Amino acid sequence: MGKQGRPEMAPNISCPGIIALTSGNVPNYTVIPRLEVWEARRTLGVRPAPDGNYRKEGEFLLNKANQYATRLSASNLTEMDTFIFHRSTYVPSMTFSLPVTTLDTRVLNKIQRRAIKAILNKLGVNKSFPRRVAFGLKDLCGMALLDMSVEQGVRGVQHFTDHVFSKDSVGNLIVIALRSLQIESGCGFHLLEEPCEWVPYITECWLTSIRDFLDKNDIKIKVANARLVPTSREHDRYIMDEIRKLGIYDNCQLFDINAVRMHLKVTTLSDVVDAQGKQITEEVLEGTKPMDRYSKLKWPRQPVTTTKQRKLWKAALEAAFTSSGRTLQQSLGKWTGPPTQVWRSFYNPRTK
Fold this sequence. Notes:
Blueprint: E1 19-22, E2 29-32, H1 55-74, H2 79-95, H3 105-122, H4 131-135, H5 148-166, H6 169-185, H7 206-216, H8 239-246, H9 251-264, H10 282-285, E3 293-295, H11 307-321, E4 341-343
Antiparallel strand pairs: 1-2, 3-4
Helix pairs in contact: 1-3, 5-6, 5-7, 8-11, 9-11
């Protein structure tokens, strides 16, 4: 964890050591060079870095697209040949890695800028021709040229649905990642079913890139085996949903508040109040893990929090659920289902 209580991947200088391989009983060994967490390495045709950035992949695609532009401009291809080149060579080559990348739209537009100009020029079209028409479907009188910013999203969604709905090993890993992201969000709705909902504090990753694309194009994906932490009592609410709706915290503050929530491993209001449903427990309000209950869910790691984060958490709980102090503005009612947490003990006032 970093100084601000946020998870960070450690550089080599913070984790000294070597990785060495030996063969049989031979004492000699070969040292495997260590890359920094932000340095990418080519895998199966893609160049991701451990910290999730695709800068090297973007640089590779930019260089490839510029080479295509240079060669196309110097060629004697006819308009028909250019269309064939676009479909048979340019599109497969430039889209191979797009199903798994999370490149920004501005980066993708920069990558394809020179190549699209060269293609339009060979087709006898002015280089300032409207891109919406150039990228538009033929059924809508467009030219159907490749728009990488759209294609990344389309192929990402296709990659998601193909694997998840076929229930193969990759699909199972995607579902696990989706469930983990859902727990991290602390939301009372499925992230891919409601992509328009503002959740700025979750970890940016491939799934959040898919979610952004769904939002921009008014698409929803319903995953049957995605899981949602249920409410357990009457008037129960999701903590982060209520804090988000206040509209008084920025993205960084919401991240800090959510960090404390993940440290405590709580999702709904019933997770943080006493058994009578009237008051938030004192230890939870102060950002300390409760001693009377625990969660069986598999949570993202958040082993520590800072004093600043705990103060922000306390203020947010009071603003969302109490006027001040621990007493709820609206008490929770009867239990409507099993609690999401395991209580260590029970007390019956009748039998004592």
